[in-house]
Amino acid sequence: MSGDGRGARPARLTIVLADWCPHCVPLSEVKTQELGRRLGVPVRRLDIDDRDQEREADALVERYGDWSPDYLIPQVFLEWSDGRVEHLLTGFPEGVSRTRRAWEDLFHSDWLRQLSPATPA
Fold this sequence. Notes:
By secondary structure, this protein is an alpha+beta fold. It has helices at residues 24-39, 51-64, 96-107, 110-115; strands at residues 10-17, 43-47, 75-80, 85-90.
């Protein structure tokens, strides 16, 4: 994860998910909202089971995420004010507890601490 953006600021978080996915709902949906509040940015939700949203989700994951024709969800992206898109997280097939640990690692990372130094981990 970068974040050196030379004046660029976080602009929006996007989560690619499906309502039936236990890694997505509620775990990653709640964590994405928390992260959005911490960064002070809106959150966009792209559901792969909604035909219009699926096209946009597929394009985002293919260009910036962990792409395969049957890609893993959730995937979370940070969009920057300078147009960059940064892939932050992909769910883990090993189990929901492993995805939860990935979220904990992100929330306790130096990267996030540097982006939001006034907010405790």
